Amino acid sequence: MRKTPAVFVVLALGGIALVGLPLVGLLTRAPWSRVWDAVSDPMALDALRLSAVVSIGATAIAVVLGVPLAWVLSRTSFPGRSAVRAIVVLPLVMPPVVGGIGLLAALGRRGVLGARLDALGVSIPFTTLAAVIAAAFVSFPLLVLAVEAGLSSIDQRLERAALAMGGSPWYVLRRLTLPLIAPQLAAGTVLTWARALGEFGATITFAGNLRGVTQTLPLAVFEQGQTDPGGAVVVSLLLVALSLAVLIAMRGRFLPSATAGR
Amino acid sequence: MTLETDQLTARRSGFEVSATMTIEPGQTVALLGPNGAGKSTFVALLAGLERPAGGRAALDGELLDDVTAGLHVAAHERPIGVVFQDLLLFPNLSSLENAAFPLRARGIPAREARGRATVLLERLGVAHKSSSPPSTLSGGEAQRVALARALVHEPRLLLLDEPMSALDLPARVATREILRRELASFDGVRVVVTHDPVEAMILADRIVVLEGGRITQTGTPEEIRTAPRTNYVAQLVGTNLFRGTLARIDAGAGTISTPQGDIVGAVPSGWRSSGDAVVAVVRPSDVAVHTTRPTGSARNVLHGPISSISIEAERARIRVASSPPVLADVTLASVERLGLRDGLEVWVSFKAVEVEFVDA
Question: What's the CATH number where A103 sits?
């Protein structure tokens, strides 16, 4: 065993505190006597239902569009590929509010695309669809990055061999490539879903905070926090429990661990 | 069935491979060349994995590539079977599904595909590993699964790229046996790509030598051995090949009788029995030259005059007219230190473990 430097121990404990303290805070401040009331509150239930729809919808969009995009990024070369990759990763590093403003500017009533949709009688902002799009926008890079990492870890000679064995490109994708990246695809899907579940800034900007339509759990927590802090803590714990449950269910099976190889 | 290539050419970053050849069915052709000669590129061309930069290729008169006509049959539409250098078994599929892959990829129903693959795995002696993933197979087993995958759809062209390079010696002996049998019963065009002259000589009816992206010589193994045209081919002649019969085996060592004398070598257990025709291979670099009779562990000590010394770069190749005659490679420093010269009586020695036996 190598001796751990004391300064590392101290800093590591600081790191644990940074991540763990809010959880401790939630647990100590929760009004446990009112838990049932707060959770069965119609507003919380509406938000829970909406969060399920929005996060799953956003994840579905990310998977359907993200897997092909990751494939294109890792398997082909075209001019401007790095630029495309940079644009895809951008939502990860820019403030979600900015994303929301951008979505409004594009899909809003006077936006580039929005104006045309408006002429057809379609208006996206401040609808559930807008909340889904906002969540998909911010979580999309996580899926693309995970799948692209999976694709680049595959020995491409295997795919060439499969072609030489008579597999059409589509068959090779289905029978070899997708099964080989299943762990990364699953991990990426979980991360994407978790990010979509927690989305706040882009949603409130682009979709607003309409109860039953666009008010997801994080928005409900925010609104409740201003009038009923105790209730907000309870709903927050609900979100934490949801995220933890998924992490635990996926652990070992899909999420990469430090000891597991690829 | 005949494979014809007409200046089939591939170009990558300053390197060009171009070959014109006709391979008749019913014979095994070895494409032999040093590393970097362009063998793998040529395999990729034949397999359709690389688009040629020029030339034509046809199998049974059906065009596979014709660059001037803009024709290129995609890899997955070619009637070929390939064993790749690193086997490249699909890690997510069992041995059986690996072997059945070419059938299923061609739309044959899973049941029938698995049935046909099972028959083949049985014939190759790996049916008991059907449900195992490739990562749990030994080198020889993986090799046989890869061979099953190359044969299962009854291709018209069988391409074996360095089929033995991944195997250790005992597995190599067993696999060579299987390869010879399968090659003999396969009636399409058979191409074995190898950098190992011994493998080429043993497996092939004809050898095509590829160097620097060009064919430098074509002929039967015997023609190549007796009339080498390039330095590289001359190296082949330099390998000590002793043909004879296995006289007796005791305690892991076998004695091979050649018309000119006996050689003792380590025999893999369970391999062959007395009276079988075998070839013993000894690399000249494994042979030591002495000016006095050596005492030591070497089982083979032969005596005779030096018949020639040829010098190449830092190395000298010594021919000794012993019985049987032996080639030895020594450094120039050794030539000087021992005072080696034509006609000098010397002893040569090599250990039994340095003798590789192959089927005759």
Answer: 1.10.3720.10
CB atoms within 10 A of CB B144: 28
pTM of the model: 0.75
CB–CB of B101 and A179 under 8 A? no
Q: How far apart are the first and last CA of chain B?
A: 27
Residue among B126, B131, B183 at smallest CA distance from B157: B183
Nearest CA of chain A to the CA of B28: how many Å? 21
Q: Which residues of A touch B (CB under 8 A)?
A: 155, 157-158, 160-169, 171, 175-176, 179-180
DSSP B128: G
**Which amino acid is present at B41?**
T
CB B347 within 8 A of CB B292: yes
Location of structure tokens 């579905």: A60
Judged by CB atoms closer than 8 Å, whether chains meet at A175 and B105 is answered as yes
Q: Which residues lie below 8 Å from residue B287, measured CB to CB, with a gap of 6+?
A: B240, B326, B327, B328, B329, B348, B349, B350
Ramachandran area for residue B290 (φ above 0: left; ψ -120 to 50: alpha; else beta): beta
Q: How far is CA A118 from the centre of its chain?
A: 29
Alpha carbon of B50: minimum distance to chain A alpha carbons (Å): 10
The boundaries of the domain holding residue A196 are: 54-215
Contact B49 A162 (CB under 8 A): no
Interchain CB distance below 8 Å, A161 and B75: no
Is the same domain home to B216 and B160?
yes
Output the CA torsion sign for A130, A135, A138, A141: negative
Query: How many domains does the structure of chain A reveal?
Result: 1
ipTM: 0.78
**Displacement of CA B317 from its chain's centroid (Å):** 24
Q: Going residue by residue through chain A (262 aa), what tens digit of pLDDT does each one get? A: 678 889 999 999 999 999 999 999 988 888 888 888 877 888 888 999 999 999 999 999 999 999 999 999 998 889 999 999 999 999 999 999 999 999 999 998 888 898 899 888 888 999 999 999 999 999 999 999 999 999 999 999 999 999 999 999 999 999 999 999 999 999 899 999 999 999 999 999 999 999 989 999 999 999 988 888 888 888 888 888 888 888 787 776 555 544 434 3
Reference B117, options B102, B132, B105; nearest CA is B102
Any idea what the CATH number is for the domain that residue B320 is in? 2.40.50.100
Residues B230, B81 share a domain: yes
Residues B18 and B125 in one domain: yes
On whether any CB of chain A is under 8 Å from the CB of B42, the answer is: no
Q: CB atoms < 10 A from the CB of B341, how many?
A: 9
Q: Please answer whether residues B304 and B323 qualify as being in contact, where contact means their C-beta atoms are separated by less than 8 angstroms.
A: yes
d(CA B181, CA B188): 14
- Whole-angstrom CA distances from A161 to A11, A164, B87, B150 are 49, 5, 9, 11
Minimum-distance CB partner of A162 among B44, B86, B90: B90
Token reading at B357: 């036996």
Q: What is the CA radius of gyration of chain A?
A: 22
